[in-house]
């Protein structure tokens, strides 16, 4: 700074506030203006009530009340415009802050991605993929070789098959003959057995039948019958 500036005081360079500080200041201003807006709306209602109260009885007071109401309405309209401007600035700052944070995150991600690719070579990646494909082909060939049966592709002798067929036919005939013999044996009717006739006369009784023992229940029935016939 020059000597002239030191004597008369030079203009100091102002430090720009941070985005968050500016947003906070705008919000505080909004709250203050909204409170003043509520106050003016209440004053307008009071002046209207005063004008209605005096009416034609005292036109001078009624006109003064309406004049004050007009002044309050002008202030209210001014505050509405200021609030719209502040809201626009606050939203712009919030969007700028969000964009700055997003760009910062994207920049960090770009640096991390670049650092991750520093140890990679595209030629090495291609070579690695070729090695993987080659080893996969080898594995497929090994699997195919293991799955093929060993020693089962030789030609089969037709005469041997014919001899086996004849043996099966002979076994079938023998089994069929045994089944026919069993069936014939089962169909043979058994010889009837003649039993002697039963005797026509009654057999002598071995002993006389004993009279049934009279129980107390029978005695009670006899007493009841005698009483009924009396």
From TrEMBL:
Q: Which UniProt keywords apply?
A: Endosome
Cellular localisation: Endosome
The record lists the lineage as: Eukaryota, Metazoa, Ecdysozoa, Nematoda, Chromadorea
The UniProt family comment states:
Belongs to the SNF7 family.
Q: List every stretch annotated Disordered.
A: 194-222
- Signal sequence, renumbered to the chain: none
Q: Which Pfam families match?
A: Snf7 (PF03357)
Its recorded name reads Charged multivesicular body protein 4b
Task: Provide the GO biological process annotations.
Answer: late endosome to vacuole transport via multivesicular body sorting pathway; vesicle budding from membrane
> To which species is this protein native?
Haemonchus placei
InterPro entries to which the protein is assigned, alphabetical: Snf7_fam (IPR005024)
Q: Name one GO cellular component term.
A: multivesicular body
Q: Which domain of life is it from?
A: Eukaryota
């Amino acid at each position: 700074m020059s000597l002239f500036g030191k004597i008369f005081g030079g203009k100091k360079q102002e430090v720009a506030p941070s985005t968050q500080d500016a947003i906070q200041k705008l919000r505080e201003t909004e709250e203050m203006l909204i409170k003043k807006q509520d106050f003016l709306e209440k004053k307008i209602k009071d002046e209207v009530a005063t004008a209605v109260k005096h009416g034609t009885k005292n036109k001078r007071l009624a006109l003064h009340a309406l004049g004050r109401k007009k002044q309050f309405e002008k202030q209210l309209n001014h505050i509405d415009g200021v609030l719209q401007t502040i809201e626009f600035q606050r939203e712009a700052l919030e969007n700028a802050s969000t964009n700055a944070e997003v760009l910062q995150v994207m920049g960090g991600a770009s640096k991390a991605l670049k650092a991750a690719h520093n140890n990679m070579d595209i030629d090495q990646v291609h070579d690695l993929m070729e090695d993987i494909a080659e080893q996969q082909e080898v594995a497929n060939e090994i699997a195919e070789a293991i799955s093929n049966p060993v020693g089962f592709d030789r030609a089969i002798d037709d005469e041997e098959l014919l001899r086996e067929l004849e043996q099966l036919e002979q076994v079938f005939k023998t089994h069929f003959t045994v089944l026919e013999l069993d069936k014939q044996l089962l169909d043979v009717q058994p010889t009837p057995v003649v039993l002697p006739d039963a005797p026509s006369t009654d057999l002598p009784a071995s002993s006389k039948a004993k009279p049934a023992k009279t129980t107390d229940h029978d005695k009670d029935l006899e007493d009841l019958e005698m009483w009924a016939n009396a």
